[in-house]
Amino acid sequence: MGAVLLALAVLHxxxxxxESAAGGRVADSPSxxxxxxxxxxxxxxxxxxxxxxxxxxxxxxxxxxxxxVLHQRGTGPQVIPVEGLANxxxxxxxxxxxxxxxxxxxMGTFYSGPCSSQFLVYGAIPVxxxxxxxxxxxxxxPGVDYWIVxxxxx
Length: 154
Prior knowledge:
The protein has a domain at 49-153: Jelly Rolls, CATH 2.60.120. Helices cover 12% and strands 36% of the residues.
């Protein structure tokens, strides 16, 4: 009888471990449930391109004071009306996004490229002569956060 009790005690003790063979936590009692926490990924801070093009220390400096006709933050694809374009010959677009992605800006013709938390490329699209309002179509994947800036040039 003593050998049976000893065997049961050894069997019971060997079942009380902190780690399972698969590497997960094993509950110490029937009322305790194993817990796991998801791995958190830090998304880079989404930078406003306007901050970069107005920063005198930036390689992308345009001017300390920049007039914009579009300065918008959002998520996913957008169709954006832009007004006040009398005497404007082109719009220069700057786009930043997170997570890293690809985008296309269409306004009659298009400009596309990669985007990241800090803008990587910029491009200009001509404004049709005599137009004072246009529609800008920003094609970016759903769920992608973005900043878009349009600077007018005459």
